[in-house]
Structure formats: C-alpha cells, structure tokens
Amino acid sequence: MKHLWQNCHAATMKDGKYAIIEDAVLVTYAGRIEWIGPREALPAIPYDVEVDLNGAWVTPGLIDCHTHLVFGGDRSREFEQRLEGVSYAEIAAQGGGIASTVRATREASEDELLESATRRARKLLRDGVTTLEVKSGYGLDLASERKMLRVARRLGETLPMTVRATCLAAHALPPEYAGRADDYIGHICNEMLPTLAGEGLVDAVDAFCEHLAFSPAQVERVFKVAHELGLPVKLHAEQLSSLHGSALAARYQALSADHLEYMTEDDAIAMAAAGTVAVLLPGAFYLLRETQLPPIDALRKHGVAMAVSTDLNPGTSPALSLRMMLNMACTSFRLTPEEALAGATLHAAKALGLADSHGSLEEGKVADFIAWDIERPAELAYWLGGDLPKRVIRHGQEIDCG
Ligand code: NIG
Ligand code: FE
C-alpha cells in the first residue's frame, strides 16, 4: 500500500541539518520513502491511503547507537556509594561495577533478560527511538555472551525496532581470568568471536580501552580478529584517561569511538581521516560527575561526525530517554539542538553502519519517522524527558507504542 503523509513540516536531517521542508508531503511504499518534498512540488503519484498529520513536525526515527540495555540486576546501591564519595574505579576495584552486573547477568535466564530488556527498549520506543544498538559485555564467557546477543536478536524480532547487536566480550576481565588478561583476550579471539560470528549473532565488535579494562595492544588483537571475520569495530575510548584508543579505532576504520572526554586533537584528526563517528554519551558524563569535557571544538574543526546516545547501562547511565540526552548534549557539551538531533539520527546511523538506509528523510531510505506534536524542532532537545505527543511510523506503518 502506498501512503501519502501530509499536513506536516519535515526536519529531514539531510547533510546533518534540520533542512526544513514547510508544508511537506511524504510518499511511502514498501517500507521506503518514495518521495519527500514541499506539497507544491508533489508529482501526480497514485496512492492508496492519505494520512493527515495535523501540522506535526516530522523527523527521522531516533537512533540510539550505544546501549547496554540487556543486563541482570541493577546498581542503585553503587549510585549511593558514588554519592558518598567512592569513585567508579574504586567500586570496580572492589569487585563491584561491571563485575556485579556480570554476576547477575550470568544468573538470569535468557527469557528473564528478554523481559527486562523489552521493558527498557519499549520506553525508548515510546520516546521516538526506532533503531537501537545493543551490546553484550555482561556475560564474559561464551554461553553468557551468546545469551545476551540472542536476547538482542529476539528484541529485533519481537519489537517494531531495528536492533543491531555488538559483541563487547572485551568489556571487563571475568573473575575466572583474574591476573590473566592476555589469556582472556586470546579466548575472545580464538573461541568467542569466531563462534558467535559464525552463529550470526554479531553485527560489530566493541571493546573497552581503559586502565581498568584493556590496553590498546589487547584491543588491537581483538580488532584484528574482527576484521578477519569481516566485522566492523567500535571502541569505548578515552572515557576516564587518554590511551589514544580513538586513534587506534580510526586505524581500524572503526564505525565509532565512544565517550572521548580525554581525547586529544590528534585523535580527532585521525578519526576525521577515517570517517569514524564520535559518539558522545552525556548521561555517563553526568552520572559520574565528570568534569573533563569531550573536545567538541576540535571535533567540529576537523569535521568529525558527532552522534549522541544514552549509553543505557546499569552502572554509569541508567538513561531511558534519548531526548533527555539531547538536552544534556546541548547543556553540558554545548552542542546546538540541530547538532544534537543530527547526532541521534544521521550520525547515529553512520555509527551503526546504516548510513545508506537510515538516519534522514530522503528518497530511497527506510520510512522510519516520528510525527511530533511540537512547534519547533529544537523542542526535541529542550524538554527534559517527559512524554511528547507523537506518532511513530516504522517501515511506512504507524505503530502503537502502548
Ligand atoms: O559505557 N565504559 C564502559 N562501559 C559502560 C559502563 C558499564 C557499567 O558500568 O556497567 C559505559 O559507560
Ligand atoms: Fe558503553
């Protein structure tokens, strides 16, 4: 069925700008955008259904390109500890942090993980997110990483969302490998990645490059195997210190390097040359009460595409609203609302390797869009959370978000 969506304005995000079309019309067919433009330029296209969007602002469906939303348990006690003055690194060193979520995730069944992850993903969907990345990394053994990645696949099958699964086996050192980080990296390279990729569970490979996680040399071993398997890479880099993981990621043509508070201008130059997206995560910055800002001016100056994401995870960013992150990206990082929205659409698509099909309202792209009941696109970054009235259209069909 061919749909004609009319009586709306569009912020297309073409070239990363609002690129506004007043009194816009979209024609969708077979899940794709067949035509978009101003009403007066609409060619005579026969259609089956006409939809009145009542003056709404239409944007691409939001894309949350960095989440850890599959996990067992929660870490609200650690939140209290941090408020009492204990640092993230200290909690990790005491066996808390990621390790405590690993214990809870290993204990949970696949169905239990699916149920809790579905609740979180539905909240994102209701906030306008139609494409989502989900990382493993709280299993840290073959069976538990597989369990997490299978949950990611099942989310994509059971929810009206596009879900990309990223293997983050190199997130932390599991207790059974204590003192043997190189052996664990060997296990990831020789067993985990080839097996999980062979099972079709992996769209990209990520790692955590940090003193309390893995060194650049260890990350590079993982990246080499990812490339041998034909998988793109991403990296948690420069979140707590500067190890130049982002430049390493760029050398491996990474889709993205994420966090980046401690990156240098040279890292930004390397990322720009490689086309690696900078994924900014203001929720983790906020919750850790970080004071070191990512070098936004250097990223702008060198033309590095900036994405914005929730980093939804139980430790450093229990964030259930991507729009809230747009606000924080503006308020804390000084992005403009236009940059923030591009960061949750066009550039987030690129960070997932989906630039050809998602992230902007253009002919030929997937017909995923939100019709927001707002007066101006900047409102998407202005309101602090809440539930903005909207209609969610995925693959050209309006969906009920519940
Ligand atoms: O993106 N930096 C590492 N990983 C997560 C935190 C995970 C956790 O603390 O559970 C992050 O912030
Ligand atoms: Fe993360």
Could you give a quick summary of the protein structure above?
Helices cover 37% and strands 22% of the residues.
Describe the structure.
This protein is of the alpha/beta class and 402 residues long. It has two domains: 3-61 and 360-398, Urease, subunit C, domain 1, CATH 2.30.40; 62-351, TIM Barrel (Alpha-Beta Barrel). It is 37% helix and 22% strand. The protein has 15 helices and 15 strands. It has helices at residues 76-83, 88-93, 98-107, 110-126, 142-158, 181-198, 216-228, 245-251, 265-274, 282-287, 296-301, 322-333, 337-343, 346-351, 379-382, and strands spanning 3-11, 20-29, 32-38, 49-60, 62-64, 129-135, 162-170, 204-209, 234-237, 256-259, 277-280, 306-308, 369-372, 390-394, 397-399. The protein has an eight-stranded parallel sheet with strand order 5-6-7-8-9-10-11-12. A seven-stranded mixed sheet has the order 3-2-1-4-13-14-15, with no helix packed on it. α4 crosses α5 (142-158), α6 runs parallel beside α7 (216-228) and α12 (322-333) packs across α13 (337-343). Residues 68, 97-98, 101, 208, 236, 239, 284, 311, 313-317 line the site of N-(iminomethyl)-L-glutamic acid (NIG).
